Fold each of these.
Amino acid sequence: MVGLPEYTDAKRTPFRGRRERSMQDKQLRIFAAAAALFAERGFDAVGTQEIAERADVAVGTVFRYASSKAELLLMVYNGELRDAINTGVRAAAVAADPVESVNALVQAVLESSACNPATVVAYQRELLFGSATDEHRTAGLALVGELEDAIASRLATAARSAGVDGEPVLREGQRAARTVFAALSLLLAGPSTGAHPGADPVEELRGQVTQIVRGFLATLPSTIETY
Amino acid sequence: MVGLPEYTDAKRTPFRGRRERSMQDKQLRIFAAAAALFAERGFDAVGTQEIAERADVAVGTVFRYASSKAELLLMVYNGELRDAINTGVRAAAVAADPVESVNALVQAVLESSACNPATVVAYQRELLFGSATDEHRTAGLALVGELEDAIASRLATAARSAGVDGEPVLREGQRAARTVFAALSLLLAGPSTGAHPGADPVEELRGQVTQIVRGFLATLPSTIETY
DNA sequence: GCGCATAAATGAGCGTAGTCATTAATGAGT
DNA sequence: ACTCATTAATGACTACGCTCATTTATGCGC
């Protein structure tokens, strides 16, 4: 009531109008409803109607806050990926050799997908194949970029401590980082591809990372010589 | 008419009943209609109604021959993948060093996707994320398995000619092969991820393959020692 | 407070992949 | 040739994601 206009700076926003607050409230409710339903029943089994009901809004309203059902998924799980990357970066900083360091990064992401594999698979799918005009997908891809940069950074450090440096080396590092993400990506999609039924994903990924990192290191000398 | 029963062996099938022939005919028409429409307008832009009309059957009939629209896509492009793999295997046999050999294999698949990238992206999507109870998807994944085996085989040859052999080596080869497919896969999905706008996919893939193969070779000695 | 411009909320409606009760065709037995 | 069981073909219908004309709420100038 006494939220006098001269107190609100339109930037400090301690008291905004009813309107803006109610919108943020709806945004939150929709987000929470989607997150809960996806988590408990899986992306594909949840209808937009249901999300709307749980958030106590009309269907049309859901689509004022998210341009598609997929966008809701991206919105929710980008947060998880963000956390996983942060965790991974911290773990990677501790690890000694480059293989362990890179492995720590991707294992963190792999672990974050332990619960609700079906929904993680859907997230993967939307991240890779969603529509290009999709705000939150772009944000998700930016996170992937961050992950790759973090990996590339560890590789660059390793190269430097092996006495190698320079722009071509960094490019090779980015390349290896991208391959690491590709391996992770396929593994996460894995449940649906039924890849290696018997294999332990953690060990499989570790093995692939080991090969890729060693491959990067093995490429270093010739990189210097041939460029 | 004169398609006497004693002539038809039910296995040689030179003359089957009208029924079976008309079914095969419809199957062919539906397949051809789908292939043509996907090629000329892209998977997502084609409706099942359209496919049905072009094949001169009712919509319901389409779904008697393919359990979903995605299945039609898989059906059509599995053939392309089959051809690409065969081409790749031939090219790989000629190449001298293992990097070139493996590269030849995957480049063949990459090239086969040159025309109609949108539909290839959709094929990739359905292969990786399609429903598990899907005959033609399983067939597609089997082809992927073949590709991986072909790659693994080249790697095993390389290892042998480096004086290394044994079951652990084969496992590492399979692992590297899987990574190679992961890289290819991500690159094919690439157009939609807007990965590296400026990069040449052919060179990018070659670079990744180089790293992976060298990584495999670098892992060999330690494989012997540590196992 | 009052009226008005602007913006948000709504839910019936739309397009499309996929279903299923009904109809049509086939061929084996007589 | 006729009957009838079996199986394919059909298209109206459903489910679901999403849209958009209409309705409702908000805040601002008076």
Amino acid sequence: MMVAMGRSRTKPAPSAPVTARGRRTRDALVAAGRELLETRGWPGFTPEQVAQAAGVSYGTFYTYFESKDDLLRTVVRMVAEEMFAESRVAPDTAGDPYARIVAANRGYLRAWRNASRVLRLVERGADSDDTLRRLLLEVRELYVHRGAEGLRRLQEAGLADPGLDPRMTAIVLGAMVEQMAHVIYALREPLEEEAVVEHMSKLWAAAIGLRAQA
Amino acid sequence: MMVAMGRSRTKPAPSAPVTARGRRTRDALVAAGRELLETRGWPGFTPEQVAQAAGVSYGTFYTYFESKDDLLRTVVRMVAEEMFAESRVAPDTAGDPYARIVAANRGYLRAWRNASRVLRLVERGADSDDTLRRLLLEVRELYVHRGAEGLRRLQEAGLADPGLDPRMTAIVLGAMVEQMAHVIYALREPLEEEAVVEHMSKLWAAAIGLRAQA
Amino acid sequence: MMVAMGRSRTKPAPSAPVTARGRRTRDALVAAGRELLETRGWPGFTPEQVAQAAGVSYGTFYTYFESKDDLLRTVVRMVAEEMFAESRVAPDTAGDPYARIVAANRGYLRAWRNASRVLRLVERGADSDDTLRRLLLEVRELYVHRGAEGLRRLQEAGLADPGLDPRMTAIVLGAMVEQMAHVIYALREPLEEEAVVEHMSKLWAAAIGLRAQA
Amino acid sequence: MMVAMGRSRTKPAPSAPVTARGRRTRDALVAAGRELLETRGWPGFTPEQVAQAAGVSYGTFYTYFESKDDLLRTVVRMVAEEMFAESRVAPDTAGDPYARIVAANRGYLRAWRNASRVLRLVERGADSDDTLRRLLLEVRELYVHRGAEGLRRLQEAGLADPGLDPRMTAIVLGAMVEQMAHVIYALREPLEEEAVVEHMSKLWAAAIGLRAQA
DNA sequence: GATGAATGAGTGTTCATTCAT
DNA sequence: TATGAATGAACACTCATTCAT
């Protein structure tokens, strides 16, 4: 445009690719973005570097994403969903509530260690970006909901303190596990992962007044 | 940039000011930096804005600090020292154990909300800076130590589960409180502060198997 | 900044330079901006080229101007004021109203030809930029006001049709002259400048019912 | 870019469509281009948005047009031709001369407001494109010619000042009306359309020394 | 010591145009 | 002929740091 002033109101929002080729390119960009975020942190996460890592030209980035933040949100959602799915407790522990708690905590810690340098980075951004903050709250809600449901079932089975509010309890105990992951993997407090899992689980069980199955 | 630590020392490192005036200027810069970090977070923490808030000219910033990170480390050190100092007079002495837990949790949450937004920011944002990471671990250690000692006394008095490792327990339950502060104040999950304090305390007490005083 | 998201609310607005050196630099940027606009039009008017033409580095541009538009507005104001000053009718025609009209029209046409490729360019931008549009209206108002006052004096002296609304008349006849400048210099309709001046003046005089001085 | 005319002809210039379908597509693009120019001005006039508005895919644009400028020229030519066509049936024939002037001015102002925002945009914005400049001069000539003929008839009938050069007068008074349209519709000077029509007509009549019909 | 001007590499984004299918 | 993905130079702007006075 010859004239620099005046913004167009109608910036065409990138839509989902319709051809297989487009899908491949978009996937490559998402993968490259995630990879860079995990290996190089914020400094590596620029549209230019992402495009280059995906093997496409700079402009192509904006064929699929409205902005850098758009890609970030996409990556975060993907990582969060993966993590949530991974941390689902294997059904073979169905009978033993304590074993389930241990498995859940171990699973969470491992999922965090493996997949979520992304989430750690993002927590920082959330301080100044509202969309990101809400996205993190959404992700948290998944865990909170699952934890609350688990507790409710235990209460109904007479295996846990019926006086505890399920949601609040899930939030607080979830926070415990989340921060431990942060302490171990980000701050690198020198602790044995398995020892932490056991201890957390013991405290968790005691906190909810878990009784051995009748 | 925080990641760019460990430069080769080719430029004159600013030395401590020798005149009273110099000291005042430096103090003003540190205070302004802390203030900005607490009130505006990372986006407000630029040399230019710090200098302006301190009422000195832009260039003066570099008379006293090698870099932006240099000031950041200085501010963090100051906040950490303050927390050390405060912790010495902790009213940890006597009375009803449960009430003490409630008071400690309430106090911790409030300290976190007010004075140490700085630490929260740094904890989530400075993951590549080793100096800061270690400083954070030191501050944590302070609280862990105090928590562990408290638990040990309870155990010795026969008021808490003697099977728990005091240090590990303090770490895990401390993490719970710390993360709840993050959830409430940074992510702004809509929760009543006092309700959280009560719930956390109840879970904490149950977790350590707290018994009412004989 | 490591984090890309979140805009700072406090962008320091560039203030007027306080030292002589600063004033020189700022003046050089304004001059270069005007020069480029006049010689190369919009395509040459980029912060980078302006800075280069002024012999300073890129970043310096933003030491003195909030944005490209900021400089543009500055240049427009300057050109407009210059033009308005230039087109003031020499006082030696005080006695003869018709001679004054001729002089004013000739002056306007010349001022436009010399100084205001800038204004022509800007008229285009005004279509999509509100600030610019208002700036142009302000400039117009200067001329309109002067024209209206002139007519009022003639009416009071009984030398012009007293039934004409001075302001509206000034607007309409001013539009006539302005567009003729555009037609001659921008569209390059092949017309003799002096012939146009004479004809415009004759029509202008007839339109306001100018009577020879008693 | 408009300034980039006269490329070396190394790529296949799009030829006129041969199938009916091709013609429909091309027409849709032209119509969409015109529509966007009229409703959104320059910012809306991008190949992408034009294609989208025409309901065809992006790439198709370049099946029919060599460039964005190619479409612009096509649209301008179309608008110009329309104006030529309309001018042929101008109701210029008889009646009260003053009423005719009023009607002509009102009509011109309205035409300008509606159909030829395109021309207004181009007149102020396309100063480096020779093709367009000449096209604009041609359109102007049409109106000038008509105006001059009208004046000549009035002079022959003894109803207007016989000392005026018809062509020059038509140019100057035409400029007056044209610029008023610009002032009202582009710069949005707050004036009543009908009041402007009346005033312009009064000044016009006085300027040519119009005498009431014998 | 203090000032404020100067620096310039880096960032996110746009968009007219080309290309493979 | 039609599609939509791909291209990349260009642009406006930021900001930690350095420098001349």
